[in-house]
Design goal:
The chain is of the alpha+beta class. The chain has 12 helices and 14 strands.
Length: about 325
C-alpha cells in the first residue's frame, strides 16, 4: 500500500515537473519571439510612398513609427493632428532618428485638394470614421516624406498626462522661457516657465508641450519642447524602478493611446529594445524647415497660413537617416 502511495506521489511529482518544464519552455520561446531582432523581421506597411518616389525600403530590424498628438477632447468624434513626429528605429545599431512635421504643412488630400496637414485627420474622421482619419494622416506624411510608415501611435492631452503620471513626474529641460497663453487649465493662464531643468507632473508636461504662441520660434520652438519631453519620459520610464512596470503599462495602454496598429506583443518587444536606451546618445532629432505663406485652402475655401517645406531638405534628411 505504501509503495502505491509513493508511486502515486512520484507520478504526481513528475507530472507537476513536466508541466513546469512545458511552461518554462513556452515562456522561453515566447521571450525569444519577443526579442526585438526576431520580432520585427516582418513589419506591416500602413502607408506606401507615391509611385514616382524612389526610397529604400526598411531592412530587417528597421522600421518607421509615426507619433501623433491629437487635440481631440473627451466626447469629440474628431480631432486635429496637433503634432506629428516620425521616428526611424534601427535595432541593429540601436539608433533612433526623429523628425517633426509642422502641423501647418501644406499637403494634398485626395478628393479635397490642398490643405494643412493638421486638417487631414479631422476632415477624414468627420466624414469617414476614426480609423480612416488617422490612416489618412499617416498616408499624408508618407507621401510628403517619401518614407513607408510601418506603425502609428496616437495620443491626446489626457493620454500624455496619464502616461507621465503612471511613471511618476519627469525631469524636463526647458530650453527657453515659456508663457502658457493657451493652457488646458484656466489656473495656468499666462504662467511663465523659466528656462532650465524642471520636475513636471503629467498635467504640466502637457501644458508646456502644447504652447507655441508665446515662443519666438513658434511651431519649431514647440517641437523642441516636445523633444525634451520625450527624452524626459524615456529616462524616467527606463529607470530600474519603472522597468518592472512596463508590462503593466502596456496592458493599460488604452489609458494613454487613442489609436495604434501596434499589438501588445509589438509594444512589449519594443520596450525590450529600449531597456538600455540613452536618449542623449542614441536619439538624434531633426527639424524640417520651410516658408510660412498665406495660401488658398481647398477645404476651408479661403486663404490661411500654411508652411511650404523645403523638399530638398526633406530629401537629404530622409535619404541619410531614414
Amino acid at each position: 500500500m505504501e509503495k502505491k502511495r509513493k508511486s502515486k506521489r512520484k507520478i504526481v511529482g513528475f507530472s507537476i515537473l513536466g508541466v513546469m518544464v512545458i511552461v518554462i519552455a513556452a515562456l522561453a520561446i515566447g521571450y525569444q519571439q519577443l526579442q526585438p531582432k526576431n520580432h520585427f523581421k516582418n513589419v506591416p506597411v500602413v502607408s506606401l510612398t507615391n509611385s514616382n518616389q524612389t526610397v529604400k525600403s526598411p531592412k530587417d530590424s528597421e522600421f518607421n513609427v509615426l507619433l501623433i498628438g491629437s487635440d481631440q477632447r473627451k466626447g469629440d468624434q474628431a480631432g486635429h493632428s496637433d503634432s506629428m513626429m516620425l521616428v526611424h528605429v534601427d535595432l541593429q545599431k540601436n539608433e533612433y532618428h526623429a523628425v517633426s512635421i509642422p502641423r501647418d504643412t501644406r499637403v494634398h488630400l485626395d478628393g479635397y485638394g490642398y490643405t494643412k496637414l493638421t486638417s487631414v485627420q479631422y476632415i477624414m474622421q468627420s466624414t469617414k470614421g476614426k480609423k480612416e482619419g488617422v490612416e489618412a494622416a499617416v498616408k499624408a506624411v508618407g507621401e510628403l516624406t517619401g518614407v513607408p510608415i510601418n506603425y502609428y501611435v496616437e495620443t491626446n492631452y489626457w493620454g500624455l498626462q496619464s502616461m507621465v503620471d503612471a511613471i511618476g513626474s519627469i525631469e524636463m529641460q526647458v530650453p527657453f522661457n515659456v508663457t502658457l497663453t493657451h493652457p488646458w487649465y484656466k489656473e495656468n493662464k499666462n504662467k511663465v516657465i523659466q528656462a532650465g531643468i524642471h520636475t513636471f507632473d503629467g498635467k504640466m508636461v502637457t501644458e508646456v508641450v502644447h504652447e507655441r504662441y508665446s515662443l519666438n520660434n513658434g511651431e519649431y520652438g514647440r517641437q523642441q519642447l516636445q523633444e525634451e519631453a520625450m527624452k524626459g519620459i524615456a529616462k524616467k520610464a527606463l529607470e530600474p524602478s519603472n522597468i518592472t512596470k512596463l508590462p503593466s503599462l502596456v496592458n493599460s495602454i488604452s489609458d494613454f493611446i487613442v489609436a495604434t496598429n501596434m499589438s501588445t506583443s509589438d509594444m512589449l518587444s519594443l520596450s525590450l529594445s529600449v531597456k538600455d536606451f540613452d536618449p542623449n546618445k542614441q536619439l538624434t532629432y531633426h527639424q524640417l524647415h520651410g516658408k510660412g505663406k498665406s495660401m488658398y485652402d481647398d477645404i476651408l475655401k479661403a486663404d490661411n497660413s500654411q508652411i511650404v517645406l523645403d523638399h530638398q531638405q526633406i530629401k537629404v534628411i530622409i535619404s541619410k537617416y531614414f
